[in-house]
Every structure is written in C-alpha cells, then in structure tokens.
Fold these 2 entries.
Entry 1:
Amino acid sequence: MCFTIVSYTDWWCGYRQHTGRHKVDCNKWGCRLSDAHGDREDVHDCQAQCTGSTLEDQHIIMERRHDVCGECREAGRGRREHPSASTNGANGANGHIKYRHLAIPGERLDDFDP
Ligand SMILES: [Zn+2]
Ligand SMILES: [Zn+2]
Ligand SMILES: [Zn+2]
C-alpha cells in the first residue's frame, strides 16, 4: 500500500521543522493509489479486487539537531525555548499526529527528551 512520508527535523530549541513530502509507491496493480494501477482499469473488477483509498501520511523525524534553529539563534534562545514548541507542536501540527523517529546509528540522544 502506498503512503506518503512527511519528514521533519527536530531542533534543540523544540522546533519541529517540516522538511518535505515524498510519496512511496508500492507498485502493485491492485492498489488504487499506485501509478501501476491505471492501465488495468478495463480488465479487472476494481471494486472487488483493489485496495487503497486514501494515501496515508507517515510522519517521520529524520534528523535531530543538537542546535537551535536559525530563528532562535538570531533571537538568542536556547533549548526548548522556541515559541509555542511545547504547546502546539511545530508547524501547526497537533497532538493527534503519530511521529516516528528514525534511528540514526551512533547518534547520541542522552540530553534529548522528545
Ligand atoms: Zn499502493
Ligand atoms: Zn483497480
Ligand atoms: Zn527555534
């Protein structure tokens, strides 16, 4: 099943920066969301055979920076001091979104509490 990766970078100041969207195509003809689906439209029973209706977003934090974002650096803010970082989440994201963290080999996270 196809999905969209929505990627983020977490900054030390608490800013969750939206860095991009990328569609991952499963390339199955039985998936309505796949690019591989279209040309079989006439030879199959789409209603019965195919799956996929809405493209699901997977929110993945690709990177954690042990540094404040540019905006905070200019303003002289430090760790967890990004405006509204703790209340709203960043970029207007709300608490219903499930974020997943990408493990980075060798990354030190001792001083980081998400
Ligand atoms: Zn698919
Ligand atoms: Zn179909
Ligand atoms: Zn910041």
Note: Confidence is low (pLDDT under 50) at residues 88-92.
Entry 2:
Amino acid sequence: MRDDIIEDRSRLLRLQGFLLLKKSHDVIVIGAGPAGATLAYELGKRGIGVLVLEKDKLPRYKCCAGGVTSKAAKLLDFDISEVTEDVIYELSFTFKLGRPYLGQHSQPLIYTVMRDVFDYFLVKRAQQLGAVLMDGQKVTQIQVSADWVEVSTADNIFRSRLVVGADGAYSVVARELGMGRSIEYLVGIESEIVVPEEELAKWKSRVHIDLGCIPGGYAWVFPKRNHLSIGAGCLVSKARYLNRRHQKFLNSLSMG
Ligand SMILES: Cc1cc2nc3c(=O)[nH]c(=O)nc-3n(C[C@H](O)[C@H](O)[C@H](O)COP(=O)(O)OP(=O)(O)OC[C@H]3O[C@@H](n4cnc5c(N)ncnc54)[C@H](O)[C@@H]3O)c2cc1C
C-alpha cells in the first residue's frame, strides 16, 4: 500500500515536472528564502514567469535571530505586520558581558519574525503574482549550454535561459559554477526559549547584543511574541569556543 502511494507520488512529480517543462519559465529561482521569494515577487510584478525550486517542504524552520531591519522592511511594497512577532525600538549593547549601553528610538528599528512564517509569507506573495513554487525539490546539478541552463533535482530536469542562485550560504549553484570557494563561513547556535510572561515583558521591544564574549562573533537576544531567540554566531575558525561561550552568555542573562 505504502509503495503504491510512493510510486503514485513519484509519477505525479514526474508529470508535474513534465508539464512545467512544457510551459517554459522565463526565470528559475533556486531557493525560497527571503532573497529568492522577493526576487520572484519583483519578477512577478513585471509579468515575468518564475519557477521557484526549494529543497525543503514549506513552511520550514530556520535557525535565525529573525531581525528584519526597518530599512529592509521599507524595500517591500506590502505590510509585514501580520507576520511580525515584536517591534524593536531599543537596542542594548554590552562588551564582554559588561555594563549595557542603551539606544532608544521613536521609530521602529527592527521587526522580529519567525523565519518559517516570514519566508513562507514572502513566497505566498510571489505565488499571488503567478510564481510557481515546487518545494521538496533539492537542486543537485546545474548545466550551462549555449541555449539553456539545465537544473536537475532528484525527480526532474528543468530548463530556462536564466537561472538565479538564491540557495543560501551553502549554495549548490555557486559550487556548480565554481564560485564562493574562498568565503569564510559563519556558524550559529540558537535557542528558542519560552520564559515566564514577566521575563518576556522585560525584553519587549528590545534587542540585546554582546560583542566580545564570543570570539570572532557576537551573541544576541531577539524577543518574539511568546519566547526569546537567544543565540550566538562566529567565524568557523573560532567555532570551538561557541558552545561554551553561548552557555556563558545564557548564564549572564540570569533567567534561571
Ligand atoms: C544564527 C543566525 C542568525 C541570523 N540572524 C539574522 C537576523 O537577525 N537578521 C538578518 O537580516 N539576517 C540574519 N541572519 C542571516 C540570514 O539568515 C541570511 O542573510 C538570510 O537567510 C539569507 O537569505 P537567502 O534567501 O539569501 O538565503 P536562505 O535564507 O538561506 O535561503 C536559501 C533557501 O534555499 C534553499 N536551498 C538551499 N540549497 C538548495 C538546493 N540545493 N536546492 C533547492 N533549494 C535549496 C534553502 O532550503 C533555503 O530555503 C542570521 C543567520 C544565522 C545563521
């Protein structure tokens, strides 16, 4: 029974891929993160046909502090309040967990979001303008010929004259085209921590960042609607310190 379902699904995917091949897309965007989704949206606005290929099934969790700067939010021509977790007016900075420096502003500085919700919201905006999303399609190979760029996934081969790699830090597109080899990567660790309401209230509208506690990086607290995203990131070359220093940062916040 289960084999039949898998076989049917695989046939359906092949048929879907065939139909998509027949209906050619002006642009294939690989990756449905904020870069891919907003590009698909902008192309859709201009009447350009887009196929978005995403390796994960959406919506998908992503390890991220989820801070959208107000400058970035202004680049969008639609409102993001329905997917906003908190609005940040205050920044506090410490150096090596020392005395905090506070900065306040009368206008929003940052909107916090959960990336599963936010990224999916952006993709849906692009779909409303005609972009076709195929999720669960991990791109494995790119082949460039004189007339086409051919994009392979496990189930399908797609073709377009224009392919955009928006597949994030470990981009297959960049790898296939021999780019980005000299980049030093960053690693991050984050905890989504549910705290009592009184504790959450202390962090409302405030992002906190420590510089210096994490060698080659920094640590953060980003408030969300019902919890705190507390994390740290650093250069891969300093990653050996990350777990211990992240724990030290957590302890310094005295949340019990
Ligand atoms: C711990 C941490 C905290 C961060 N906090 C912030 C923050 O607060 N504010 C901020 O602005 N930035 C933050 N960033 C950076 C932010 O996450 C990235 O800048 C942002 O995600 C880049 O968007 P993107 O669309 O280019 O790539 P991504 O968001 O990485 O999206 C790439 C998409 O491509 C898909 N994909 C990958 N490979 C393939 C493949 N082979 N085939 C098909 N699809 C594929 C992925 O599944 C993903 O959906 C943080 C990063 C980390 C690691």
Note: Residues 30-36, 53-56, 63-67, 138-139, 166-168, 172, 188, 190, 231, 233 surround flavin-adenine dinucleotide (CB under 6 Å).
